[in-house]
Amino acid sequence: MTIVLTNLQIIDLFLRFTTVGLLISLLIWLSNKKHTRENVSYLALNCCFIGYILLSAPIENSHYGGIRNVLLFLTDITPYVIFWVTLVQLNDRFTLISVSKWLMYPALLWFLLLAYNFLVLAGDEPLHQINHGVAIAVLLISCYLAVREFFDDLNNQRRNIRLLIIILCSMYMIGLVTFELMSSAMRNTWQFSLINAMLIFFITLLITVRTLVIDDRSNLSDARTSKRLLCEENPKLAELNHLMQQGIFLNSELTIGKLAEELTIPPHQLRQLINQELGFNNFSHYLNSYRIPWVCEQLKDPTKNKIPVLTLALEAGYGSIAPFNRAFKTLKGQTPTQYRDQFQK
């Protein structure tokens, strides 16, 4: 069967296959810098992107043959793979084996149902639409996980990953909604296909350049900054410790940005200082390491045994009792009331 392409369609295909090449190059580069656990999720995500790029090419469906079902399957499971990448990147201890069987078995059953629907039935319409709804929910959860501790995260590289996850989820949801609202006649035009190919190419190119070039320069700069910041007589570290000992942590509106202003250094350098020198991955955990001991001293004081725990929590800089109770239980293994009672006997 002969496939006749116009010059614009040839340009479209060139952009798509160049994008595939960029994705493969990016994966090879990442495989030399990331752990195996992360590589598997990146490989799956790249396969999904490649599936969409090839599926949306300006070629009639009849020319794809049986491979169209595979490409359709890869495209529609992309949200679940993004969710997998989110869990792997934001939780160092996450593995698929660690997932509860009560979650794993239903997820596996749903995955097998999707595989049958797309690979055998070529995307049966009712289940296809249901999957779109589930996909939106999964992407919203991924966005929530990425945003939840974005400002508290002290690892600059992981903050960039959080931002990338948010962008990927937003792009997929916008694309899905646009695709559903757009008529099939418009989706099948060469103009739409070419614009789609150009957007995919330039976005992939930007991500590749950001990862391969700018990130390397950033790492070099961070290494130099780290060497300067982590020396034994680092004045900024001493100044930070002095501020904390003076009780700046009691300020309920204290943020990494405000603390950096007090130290007259950029926020990313302060994150690196706390993360690499003091070993904290989260700014709230760093504050808790000062706030909880301060509260403990108040709870030990017999002259303050009438002061409510809520009052002490607010004085320590917490906005409400719930985060204080969680932090206290995590660090001390008991509730504030239980801790106070042992000094009242």
Automatic annotation (TrEMBL):
Keywords: DNA-binding, Membrane, Transcription, Transcription regulation, Transmembrane, Transmembrane helix. The chain crosses the membrane at residues 13-30, 42-59, 71-90, 102-122, 134-151, 163-182, 194-214. InterPro entries: Homeodomain-like_sf, HTH_AraC, HTH_AraC-typ_CS. Residues 238-342 form the HTH araC/xylS-type domain. Pfam families: HTH_18. The keyword Cell membrane does not apply. PANTHER family: ARAC-FAMILY TRANSCRIPTIONAL REGULATOR. This is HTH araC/xylS-type domain-containing protein. It comes from Pseudoalteromonas byunsanensis. The lineage of its organism: Bacteria, Pseudomonadati, Pseudomonadota, Gammaproteobacteria, Alteromonadales.
